[in-house]
């Protein structure tokens, strides 16, 4: 099976995504209970997102309750509660910003991405999260491998808003430091995003032995440029900076992903208290950053500082060994001294960069323009580092560890 060059956009390949193409395989693939029939252009035969059990034939035979699928689908549709979002044709409409169907997504700004499950050949599961699964898929018309993010729709406004926020960010963000977006579609209880496949996956898989300073500087440079792009070009704050949301491909490129908890900046303040607690800045934990119940972009700068230490040292900075529960850990973040890079392993410039990110007072932390002018990142910008070679070696070590 031919493979694409990671990071290559579909337009560079000379293709457009067209759901009407018919050169699909005749075999079926199963995604969370969906039996997608290839080559027919037909949709799924049962509810997407439900954990269906699989019999010896490999076909889905029952749903979460143990009842046959046919019995489940005869019951009341869970989308009775989605009447505000479903249009008469059964498409999912998000507050006039986007309409998602089984054949693609149309945004209110005129951009359209036509792609469907019938064009996909599912290869394996890449990861699982709170709201869904990420699959590696092969898009047959373009011969491109993609990451297919399956999001199970939850019956609440917040989850739906997170979906449209991420779609809105992904389709607008055109940056070498943000994962590419190829399209989205909707099948019953799931929304699917098609994104650039970063084949060496997330940073947390690549750092167990720690990362040399020259590599660490290049990673930090890419992340800061990605965060600055979101802020300056899109008025967006990421709000969930951590190693699992920083991806690497075989070319050594480093890109940000996961914008489900991102939010537009309102006079530099973001009001919603979301994100991963372990990477929260002190002001986010106590809820007084930048004003009542808000925080500024400097909260992401704190998360960046923790991420740099974790990736560099090969471990999370606030070691769990001294804590009996999460509250002890959060108390250490709020009231304890911030962690630092060890001076015997890293340059004074690198240590100073991280120390600036981890100032307890958010107002004393640098903004992205300041970080990009810091001597450590200026040196990283000007110094050649073979990121492709590092990525290959780090990924090979990851594969070797997982074979044991």
UniProtKB/TrEMBL annotation:
Record-level Gene Ontology MF annotations: ATP binding; MAP kinase kinase activity; protein serine/threonine kinase activity
Entry keyword set: ATP-binding, Kinase, Nucleotide-binding, Phosphoprotein, Serine/threonine-protein kinase, Transferase
Pfam families with a match to the protein in the record: Pkinase
Domain Protein kinase: 120-377
InterPro entries referenced in this protein's UniProt entry, alphabetically: Kinase-like_dom_sf, Prot_kinase_dom, Protein_kinase_ATP_BS, Ser/Thr_kinase_AS
Region (Disordered): 16-68
Bias type Low complexity, positions: 53-66
Family recorded in the similarity comment: Belongs to the protein kinase superfamily. STE Ser/Thr protein kinase family. MAP kinase kinase subfamily.
Protein name: mitogen-activated protein kinase kinase
Species for this entry: Coemansia asiatica
């Amino acid at each position: 099976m031919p493979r694409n060059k990671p990071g290559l956009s579909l337009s560079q390949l000379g293709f457009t995504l067209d759901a009407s193409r018919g050169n699909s395989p005749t075999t079926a693939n199963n995604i969370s209970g969906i039996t997608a029939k290839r080559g027919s252009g037909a949709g799924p035969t049962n509810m997407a997102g439900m954990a269906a059990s699989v019999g010896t034939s490999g076909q889905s035979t029952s749903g979460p309750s143990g009842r046959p699928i046919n019995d489940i689908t005869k019951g009341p549709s869970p989308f009775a509660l989605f009447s505000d979002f479903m249009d008469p044709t059964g498409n999912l409409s998000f507050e006039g910003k986007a309409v998602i169907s089984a054949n693609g997504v149309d945004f209110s700004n005129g951009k359209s991405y036509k792609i469907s499950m019938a064009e996909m050949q599912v290869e394996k599961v890449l990861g699982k999260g709170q709201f869904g699964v990420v699959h590696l898929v092969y898009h047959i018309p373009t011969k491109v491998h993609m990451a297919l993010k399956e999001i199970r729709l939850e019956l609440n406004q917040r989850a739906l808003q997170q979906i449209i926020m991420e779609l809105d960010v992904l389709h607008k963000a055109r940056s070498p430091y943000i994962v590419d977006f190829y399209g989205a579609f909707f099948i019953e209880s799931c929304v699917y995003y098609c994104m650039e496949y970063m084949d060496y996956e997330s940073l947390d898989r690549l750092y167990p032995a720690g990362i040399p300073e020259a590599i660490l500087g290049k990673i930090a440079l890419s992340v800061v440029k990605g965060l600055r792009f979101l802020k300056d070009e899109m008025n967006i704050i990421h709000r969930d900076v951590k190693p699992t949301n920083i991806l690497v491909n075989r070319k050594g490129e480093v890109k940000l992903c996961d914008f489900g908890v991102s939010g537009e900046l309102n006079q530099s303040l973001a009001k919603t208290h979301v994100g991963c607690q372990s990477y929260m800045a002190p002001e986010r934990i106590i809820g007084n950053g930048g004003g009542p119940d808000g925080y500024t972009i400097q909260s992401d700068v704190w998360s960046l500082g923790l991420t740099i230490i974790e990736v560099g040292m090969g471990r999370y900075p606030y070691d769990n060994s001294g804590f009996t529960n999460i509250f002890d850990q959060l108390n250490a973040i709020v009231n304890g001294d911030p962690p630092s890079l060890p001076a015997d392993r890293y340059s004074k410039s690198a240590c100073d960069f991280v120390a600036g990110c981890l100032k307890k007072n958010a107002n004393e932390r640098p903004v992205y323009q300041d970080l990009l002018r810091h001597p450590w990142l200026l040196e990283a910008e000007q110094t050649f580092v073979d990121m492709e070679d590092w990525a290959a070696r780090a990924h090979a070590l990851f594969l070797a560890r997982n074979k044991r």
